[in-house]
Amino acid sequence: MKDNLIEVFERYKSERFIQDDSKLLDLFDQLDPVSCDEIYSRWSGGSFQTGHWVGNALRDMKWYGKWFRSKLDAAPLICFDEDGNLFSNQVVGGEGILWMAEFRGKVSATLICDIQPMFDHFRKVDDDTLMGIMDEKKILTEIELVPNDRYFFFYLQRVAKFPAKFVNRNETNLWSASVQVPQKA
Predict the structure, then answer these.
(1) Does residue 51 form part of some domain?
(2) pTM of the model
């Protein structure tokens, strides 16, 4: 059965377009949960081609993958910069944490983003491959709120090291709006 699930996963991964999300949901539901401790690593990522807007957004930001350093230190958007270096893109307001959470009937590792109402739920394809579903309310972009009533489906492959130099950047002031104290008139 496990070999069959891996075969189905690989077939969906290579499809040019997946019209019906229900077959991805069915595959996800059959996969085993994974613990937070099992996924501390660097990961390269990709998306299943469903036409979801997040796939295009990730491509535009040159998304490479994710980096789970510890339960309280998770970088969901490892991206390439203009110089070919990798960095943690904090465009959605920070990074995140890992937590065990129930989703679709199973308790499994889940990435909870710092600011945006986004959750990445993970299931194990094999020891070095994860399938993920991003579940979110509305995503606040610099331009508008982007509503969505569909899940975003993606996958992660464990890597021993990044293919480029990782540089630290701190581009986001997460607290600027919330700590401003009104001035007395």
Answers:
(1) yes
(2) 0.86
180 in a structural domain: no
**177 lies in a domain?**
no
CATH of the domain at 112: 2.40.128.580
Two tokens at 166? 């990782």
Per-residue tokens: 111: 């990435």
pLDDT in tens, 94-136: 799 999 999 999 999 999 999 888 899 999 999 999 999 998 8
Ordered DSSP codes for 141-185 = -SS-EEE--S-EEEEEEEESS-SS-B-------TTTTTSPPPPP-
d(C-alpha 70, C-alpha 106), whole Å: 22
Distance between CA atoms of residues 109 and 124, nearest Å: 10
Residue 39: which of 113, 142, 129 has the closest Cα?
Answer: 129
CA torsion sign for 63, 162, 44, 149 is negative
Instruction: Give the residue numbers spanning the domain of 115.
Output: 2-159
Is there a domain that residue 179 lies in? no
Q: How far is CA 106 from CA 28, 54, 67, in A?
A: 11, 25, 23
